[in-house]
C-alpha cells in the first residue's frame, strides 16, 4: 500500500504547506491506511473514516500541541495519531505494548487529554480554557464531540457552565446521526431537523441575504438580529438551543468538504466566546461495507478488506448473547421484566429483546446515571427493570445505584457486561472495579457465573429476588458448555463445591473457576489435594462453605478477574477475620494499577489469571508449614 503524501507528514505543521488538492489526496491515503491497518488489528474503523477531512482541517487551522484538541470518547483519534508523528507505530494499534486506540498524554504531546468514556471533552477543554485565562496565556481549546456523546449528561453540564462563563472555547459537534447504533433522543431529532429541513437553512440564508442588501443599516440589523433572541429567530435560526445556552452556532456544514470545514473553523478561531461548530459527516465514509453497516464497523475485529467479513468468528456463543436470549425467554412469561440500555443495544445483546418487546425496551442514550434512576422509578411501580451496562460504564452511575436503588431496596437487576479484562480497548475500558464499587452497598446481591448456564440461572435467581441484584459476566465467548433448556434458580448466597481436597482451598469466582479446576488437576498430579469452590456470590458470601474449607485446609487461594483492592479476595479475607479464622491466604487477581491493553490471553497470562500460575502458587503454598486454622481471639471478644 503506497501512501507517498502521508509518509511526508511528520507533524501537523507539514499539512500547512499542502494545497487543497493535496489535502484531498491525503484524505484518500489516510482512508487506505486506516482500512489496511484496522483490518488486521481491529478497532474503531467507521468513526475514523468519518472524521478524515475534519481532522485534516482541524490540524490545518489550529496549532497543536499549543492549541489543545480533545477528542470525546477518543475512538475517532486514529487520523489525528497518523498526522501527529505516529505513523511508524500505527501497525501496533491496540496491541500489547503498542499504540493506544484512544488519546493518551503519555503517548504524545499532541494528545492533550485522555479519553475513552464519553461526554467528557467539553468539561476538559473548559478546564483548560480557565487555566489559560488564569495564567493569562493565549491558545485555543477545541472539543470534538459526536452527536452520540452529546447525549451524555456531562456534556450538558459543561455546556451550561461554558455558556455562563463566556470564555473562548470551541466545540466541534461531529454529527453523523449515529451513536454506536442509531442515535436516539429528542436532541438527536433536533439535530436531524437542522440537517434535513430545508426551511432552517433556506430561511437563514434568505434572511441573511435580505438584510445584507439593505444599504448601511443592513449589516447592523443583521448583527443585531443574530444576537436578539426573539420568536422569529426561534423559527428560522438553526442551532437556537446552543445560541440560547450562550454559544455562537456555526453550521451545519459538510464535514467532508475540507475547504468548507477549514473556512468555518477559521471563523470560529476569530470569534470570541463559546462557539459550537456543527459538522455533518458520514460514519464509515469511503469504505462501502462500513458506510452500509456503520454499527458493525463502529468497533470491529480483524476483517477481510474485500468482503468486510470477519477473519475469524468464534463458534462459541458469547455471554452477551446468552444474557439476551435468556432475558427474552424470561420476559415472555413475566411482563414486569423491562430492559434498559445506555446507547448499547447491540453490545449488551438486547437487539432481539427490542424487537420482541418494543414497549418494554428503553435506549436512553449515553446516559448511565439516568438509566439507573429511571430503572429505580420503574421499580417503585412494580416493574423489574434489567439495566444492561458494561462494567466500566456503570462506574458512572455509582451514586444512583447506591442512593436511588439500593437505599430503597428496589428490585433492579444490573446486567454488568464486559466485567473483567476486555482486551484491546485497554485501561479506560477494563471492567475490573465492579465488585469493589458494588459490594459495600447495603442490600445488594452480587453474583458472577462460572459459565453460560450459570448466567442463565443467575438471571432467573435475580428475577425472583425482591432486591437490587448485580450479575457480572465477561466480554466474549463463553466456556462452550452445553446450554441447558431449563432455567433454574440458585439458592442465594450458596457456593458450589466442585472438588474436595484437604491441602488447599481454592475459592474462585466467574469463569476462572475452570482454570481453578484445571490447576487442581495438575496439583493432584503433584500429590496436592485442592478443594475447588465456585463461590458464585460475592455478596452474600457463603460463610459456611468458606469457613468449612478454610478450617479443613488452613491454606486458601482466592481467584478473580478483578482488581485485588476491594475485590473478591478482600471479601474472603474480611470474612475470615470476622469469623476469627487464621489461615495462609494468597489472592490472585489484578494489581493496584491501571491495566494496559492487549489480547486477553496475553493479559491473563501476564497477570497470572491462568492455570500455570495457580499451580505455581499452589506448589509454593503446599511447601509452607500448615497454620493451625484455629479460631483467633477476636479483640472485640476479649
Ligand atoms: C460513558 C460511556 N458510555 C458508553 C460508551 C460506549 N460508546 C463508545 S462510542 C459510543 C457512541 C458515540 O457516538 P458518537 O459520539 O456520535 O461518535 P461516533 O462513533 O458516531 O463518531 C458509545 C455509546 C462510552 N465510551 N462511554
Ligand atoms: C469506544 C467504546 O467505548 C466502545 O466502542 C467500546 O470499544 C465497545 O466495546 P465492545 O467492542 O466490547 O463492545
Ligand atoms: Mg455519531
UniProtKB/TrEMBL annotation:
Its cofactor is Mg(2+); thiamine diphosphate. One of its GO terms (cellular component) is cytosol. Pathway: Metabolic intermediate biosynthesis; 1-deoxy-D-xylulose 5-phosphate biosynthesis; 1-deoxy-D-xylulose 5-phosphate from D-glyceraldehyde 3-phosphate and pyruvate: step 1/1. It comes from the Bacteria. The keyword rRNA-binding does not apply. One of its GO terms (biological process) is isopentenyl diphosphate biosynthetic process, methylerythritol 4-phosphate pathway. Thiamine diphosphate binds at residues 75, 116-118, 148-149, 176, 287, 368. One of its GO terms (molecular function) is thiamine pyrophosphate binding. Binds 1 Mg(2+) ion per subunit. Binds 1 thiamine pyrophosphate per subunit. InterPro entries: Dxylulose-5-P_synthase (IPR005477), THDP-binding (IPR029061), Transketo_C/PFOR_II (IPR009014), Transketolase-like_Pyr-bd (IPR005475), Transketolase_BS (IPR020826), Transketolase_C (IPR033248), Transketolase_CS (IPR049557). It catalyses: D-glyceraldehyde 3-phosphate + pyruvate + H(+) = 1-deoxy-D-xylulose 5-phosphate + CO2. Residues 317-481 form the Transketolase-like pyrimidine-binding domain. Mg(2+) binds at residues 147, 176. Keywords: Isoprene biosynthesis, Magnesium, Metal-binding, Thiamine biosynthesis, Thiamine pyrophosphate, Transferase. Its EC number is 2.2.1.7. It is an enzyme of class 2 (transferase). The keyword Signal does not apply. Belongs to the transketolase family. DXPS subfamily. Homodimer. Catalyzes the acyloin condensation reaction between C atoms 2 and 3 of pyruvate and glyceraldehyde 3-phosphate to yield 1-deoxy-D-xylulose-5-phosphate (DXP). PANTHER family: 1-D-DEOXYXYLULOSE 5-PHOSPHATE SYNTHASE-RELATED, 1-DEOXY-D-XYLULOSE-5-PHOSPHATE SYNTHASE, CHLOROPLASTIC. This is 1-deoxy-D-xylulose-5-phosphate synthase.
Amino acid at each position: 500500500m503506497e501512501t507517498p503524501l502521508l509518509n511526508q507528514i511528520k507533524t501537523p505543521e507539514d499539512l500547512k504547506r499542502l494545497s487543497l488538492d493535496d489535502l484531498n489526496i491525503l484524505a484518500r491515503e489516510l482512508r487506505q491506511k486506516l482500512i489496511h491497518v484496522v483490518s488486521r488489528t481491529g478497532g474503531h474503523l467507521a468513526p475514523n473514516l468519518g472524521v478524515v477531512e475534519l481532522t485534516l482541517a482541524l490540524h490545518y487551522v489550529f496549532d497543536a500541541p499549543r492549541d489543545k484538541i480533545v477528542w470525546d470518547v477518543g475512538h475517532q483519534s486514529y487520523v489525528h495519531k497518523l498526522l501527529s508523528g505516529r505513523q511508524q507505530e500505527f501497525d501496533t494499534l491496540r496491541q500489547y505494548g503498542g499504540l493506544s486506540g484512544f488519546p493518551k498524554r503519555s503517548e504524545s504531546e499532541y494528545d492533550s487529554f485522555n479519553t475513552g468514556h464519553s461526554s467528557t471533552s467539553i468539561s476538559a477543554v473548559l478546564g483548560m480554557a480557565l487555566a489559560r485565562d488564569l495564567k493569562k496565556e493565549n491558545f485555543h481549546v477545541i472539543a470534538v464531540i459526536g452527536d452520540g456523546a452529546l447525549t451524555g449528561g456531562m456534556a450538558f453540564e459543561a455546556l451550561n457552565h461554558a455558556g455562563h462563563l463566556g470564555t473562548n472555547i470551541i466545540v466541534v459537534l461531529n454529527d453523523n446521526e449515529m451513536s454506536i447504533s442509531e442515535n436516539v433522543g429528542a436532541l438527536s431529532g433536533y439535530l436531524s431537523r437542522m440537517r434535513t429541513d430545508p426551511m432552517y437553512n433556506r430561511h437563514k440564508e434568505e434572511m441573511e441575504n435580505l438584510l445584507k442588501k439593505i444599504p448601511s443599516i443592513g449589516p447592523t440589523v443583521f448583527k443585531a438580529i443574530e444576537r436578539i433572541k426573539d420568536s422569529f429567530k426561534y423559527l428560522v435560526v438553526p442551532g437556537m438551543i446552543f445560541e440560547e445556552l450562550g454559544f455562537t452556532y456555526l453550521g451545519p456544514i459538510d464535514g467532508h468538504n475540507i475547504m468548507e470545514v477549514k473556512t468555518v473553523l477559521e471563523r470560529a478561531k476569530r470569534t470570541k466566546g463559546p462557539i459550537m461548530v456543527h459538522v455533518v459527516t458520514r460514519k464509515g465514509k469511503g469504505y462501502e461495507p462500513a458506510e452500509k453497516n456503520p454499527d458493525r464497523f463502529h468497533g470491529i475485529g480483524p476483517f477481510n478488506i474485500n468482503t468486510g467479513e470477519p477473519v475469524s468468528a468464534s463458534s462459541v456463543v458469547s455471554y452477551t448473547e446468552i444474557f439476551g436470549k435468556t432475558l427474552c425467554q424470561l420476559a415472555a412469561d413475566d411482563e414486569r421484566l423491562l430492559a434498559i440500555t445506555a446507547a448499547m443495544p447491540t453490545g449488551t445483546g438486547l437487539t432481539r429483546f427490542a424487537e420482541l418487546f418494543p414497549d418494554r425496551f428503553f435506549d436512553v442514550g449515553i446516559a448511565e446515571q439516568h438509566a439507573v434512576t429511571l430503572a429505580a422509578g420503574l421499580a417503585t411501580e412494580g416493574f423489574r427493570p434489567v439495566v444492561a451496562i458494561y462494567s466500566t460504564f456503570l462506574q458512572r452511575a455509582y451514586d444512583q445505584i447506591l442512593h436511588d436503588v439500593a437505599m430503597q431496596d428496589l428490585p433492579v437487576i444490573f446486567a454488568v457486561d464486559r466485567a473483567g479484562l476486555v482486551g484491546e480497548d485497554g485501561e479506560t475500558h477494563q471492567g475490573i472495579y465492579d465488585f469493589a464499587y458494588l459490594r459495600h452497598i447495603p442490600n445488594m446481591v452480587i453474583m458472577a457465573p462460572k459459565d453460560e448456564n450459570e448466567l442463565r440461572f443467575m438471571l432467573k435467581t435475580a428475577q425472583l429476588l425482591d432486591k437490587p441484584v448485580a450479575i457480572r459476566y465477561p466480554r466474549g465467548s463463553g466456556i462452550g458448555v452445553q446450554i441447558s433448556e431449563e432455567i433454574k434458580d440458585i439458592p442465594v448466597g450458596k457456593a458450589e463445591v466442585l472438588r474436595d481436597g484437604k491441602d488447599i482451598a481454592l475459592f474462585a469466582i466467574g469463569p476462572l473457576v475452570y482454570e481453578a479446576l484445571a490447576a487442581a488437576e495438575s496439583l493432584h498430579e503433584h500429590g496436592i489435594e485442592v478443594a475447588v469452590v465456585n463461590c458464585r456470590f460475592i455478596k452474600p458470601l457463603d460463610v459456611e462453605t468458606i469457613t468449612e474449607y478454610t478450617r479443613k485446609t488452613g491454606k486458601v487461594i482466592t481467584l478473580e478477574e478483578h482488581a485485588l483492592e476491594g475485590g473478591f479476595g478482600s471479601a474472603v479475607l474480611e470474612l475470615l477475620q470476622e469469623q476469627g479464622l487464621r489461615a495462609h491466604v494468597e489472592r490472585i487477581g489484578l494489581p493496584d494499577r491501571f491495566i494496559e491493553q492487549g489480547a486477553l490471553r496475553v493479559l491473563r497470562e501476564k497477570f497470572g489469571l491462568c492455570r500455570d500460575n495457580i499451580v505455581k502458587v499452589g506448589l509454593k503454598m503446599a511447601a509452607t508449614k500448615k497454620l493451625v486454622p484455629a479460631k483467633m481471639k477476636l479483640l472485640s471478644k476479649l
